[in-house]
Amino acid sequence: MHKYGGSSVASPERIIHVAERVKAAWAQGPLAVVVSAMGDTTDDLLALLRQVAHDPPAREVDLLLAAGEQISAALLAAALQERGVPARALLGWQAGFATDAVHRKARIRDVDPARVQAILAEGAVPVVAGFQGLHAGEITTLGRGGSDTTAVALAAALGCARCEIYSDVDGVYTADPRVVPDARRLAVLSYEEMMEMAHMGAQVLQIRAVELAEARRLTIVARSTFAGGPGTEIREVDPTESEMSVRGVAHDRNIAKVTIRGVPDRPGFAHRLFAALAGHSVNVDTIVQSAPRDGCSDIVFTVAREDLPRTVEVAGQAAAEVGADASAEQDVAMVSAVGAGMVTRPGVAAAMFGALAEAGINIEAITTSEIKISCLIRERDVEAAVRAVHAAFGLGQAKA
Amino acid sequence: MHKYGGSSVASPERIIHVAERVKAAWAQGPLAVVVSAMGDTTDDLLALLRQVAHDPPAREVDLLLAAGEQISAALLAAALQERGVPARALLGWQAGFATDAVHRKARIRDVDPARVQAILAEGAVPVVAGFQGLHAGEITTLGRGGSDTTAVALAAALGCARCEIYSDVDGVYTADPRVVPDARRLAVLSYEEMMEMAHMGAQVLQIRAVELAEARRLTIVARSTFAGGPGTEIREVDPTESEMSVRGVAHDRNIAKVTIRGVPDRPGFAHRLFAALAGHSVNVDTIVQSAPRDGCSDIVFTVAREDLPRTVEVAGQAAAEVGADASAEQDVAMVSAVGAGMVTRPGVAAAMFGALAEAGINIEAITTSEIKISCLIRERDVEAAVRAVHAAFGLGQAKA
């Protein structure tokens, strides 16, 4: 199973390059391929849409966006056939992808790989349009990066042990190399580590793809379409394999912070608030609630910036109902140290806070999990923060 | 039923304009809409495809091109909802279009309008992607201009008496106004006249749409999206309504001429030749066979220019088998006088040949039907020929 991302098929020349790569792999054995939309197609389509509708219906957004992968799949299949490789482009529904009913963020419910298997049995290459599926006769899409999930789900349905995900980066790094010049590629990451890295803005893989790979015990290999190299393997990692406590430093600028002050210290508000947000399809990220003081507490949470307008509306209403105040800020970012070995090593949190303090960076909120420590900071400090934490844990010099 | 062509939805501004038009019509009563792909989308997609595959597989071409109408339908439905008009975009298969298996030139086999009717029953506007259908789980397309046929077939399935087809021209003219400055818009044309006009290059409507409208006794109105005006009605015309013998002058530059010389005067060759061409999906247009001389005859026929390479191959082989010679020319064009009343008026053919002779234009072949006379001429003469014939029949001054 190969999956090629948008930058890998961004132009006819690149599609031909991918076709040559697929041809070489196919010569070694049967192969299915999943593709994203070409380059900026998805953004271009959304830009067109915004010019005709301010608040477009999700059903029509899905119908519109699904055209992107339809185009790239057809082009790649044609390019393969031109090069002597029998190939068939398949839309999501043709490849057997059934999803739930949630437009724009649908979840795959079932993959019936019969048609893909029939094409493989003919010795041909199925080229599947990623990111899309069908629910009750309606086209759905899986959300940003959803083609990764398409690839992993199809690989699992076909019983593949590995799914190679090709993009314009050659793996997962200890930090974003554009921010940290001595960042290193990691040879192996556990599923949990990858999820935290992905979640925190290392946009190599969609998180749901990693979750699904973990559930099916399938190895993902993140590789470059253009460079050679082994890439990064995301798989089950024996704890003893993981020498380092901190494996990488992730950061995320696409967040906004919402603060609700003066929440009466009675049960039920948090439930009502976050249920209302979920009802509006807002994914809430970090949540921090302060200890109550004078019978009131403050709740701070973060959301993706594109969800902020809806969030402010819903949270403002919920806050007003209990006499609390909601406010929002966009000038924030999250920096996180991630590593499966972290929980067993003392002093990691202290080292991280120390590195940020030494760099003069104020921490606005902290959350931790078993494999990460995240600090909410000002957006302007984010690059300095990533470099400071990366250096503090010696990630630039150590072995992967 | 409204159908909007590619130029009518070529930009976000134009889509908004169409949405306003649809909104006004919907306020008067239930309305279904069919759209073509935006502007040059189809050509742009084909240009992309040519960069990755010299001889692309028809199945993948259809998958690729169907994305064009998918995009425009989603955008128009979103634009309508933004303007308070409930609307649902539907792909060809969602709107119930089943076709035969011939990719790129599929014919509609059946329209199941249940879903479109359900949307209409809700008071919403179904916005159907034209040009596309489904055969055995495969996306098919109906050929150039196929969205017209989509619209007429859907109008018929819904029991509509009229189908309004909007484009950037305000009707059918006595000749191409770019060639003949005093050409007039025709208020009414019979189906047969429209077919001959369309066939001969008046690219207002796809011929199959007109055939289908005739079979279902449905009136097509060809109108402008941008100008007001009544447009041209294409409907059954009582012969007494038709005062003029010649209604219009059509021309077609998209033809190539194939000549087969020295065909032995025995039965079977014409059948073998044209069956072979049909087997390669080449539509042969005019066919002229000369009277035999010295046991041999010549066959001249025309095809669309894009079919010429295949035609030359097939015809060359067939000719070689009987010791004949095939040759081809692209520098030709057809000019035709069209009119249902023509067959009952003497002298029309003589008047047309006289007009061409007076303009110094050589006629290479002549074919006639009950409602048209066509002359094959050199392409360089085509504009002068159209003007000469238009003037000879007094079309510029007469009433429509």
Estimate the strand proportion of chain A: 15-25%
Q: Residue ranges of chain A: pLDDT <50 for 5 or more in a row?
A: none
By oligomeric state, this entry counts as: homodimer
CATH superfamily heading of the domain at 2-168 in chain A: Acetylglutamate kinase-like
Based on CA atoms alone, the radius of gyration of chain A comes out at: 22 Å
If strands are numbered along the chain, what order do they take across the biggest sheet of chain A? 3-6-2-1-9-11-12-10
Structural class determined from secondary elements of chain A: alpha/beta
CATH architecture of the domain at 2-168 in chain A: 3-Layer(aba) Sandwich
CATH fold call of the domain at 2-168 in chain A: Carbamate kinase
Cα shape of chain A: globular
Largest interface, with Cβ-Cβ < 8 Å? A-B, 42 and 41 residues
> Roughly how much helix do the residues of chain A carry, as a percent range?
25-40%
Averaging pLDDT over every residue of chain A, what do you get? Answer: 91
Distance between the termini of chain A: 26 Å
Number of helices of chain A: 11
Overall CATH class of the domain at 2-168 in chain A: Alpha Beta
Characterize the largest beta sheet of chain A: strand count, sense, and whether it forms a barrel. Answer: 8 strands, mixed
Structural write-up:
Two copies of one chain form a homodimer. Chain A is of the alpha/beta class. The first copy, chain A, has a domain at 2-168: Acetylglutamate kinase-like (Carbamate kinase). Helix content of chain A is 35%, strand content 25%. The first copy, chain A, has an eight-stranded mixed β-sheet, with helices on both faces. Chain A is globular and about 75 Å long. The two termini of chain A are 26 Å apart. The interface between A and B is large, with 42 and 41 residues.
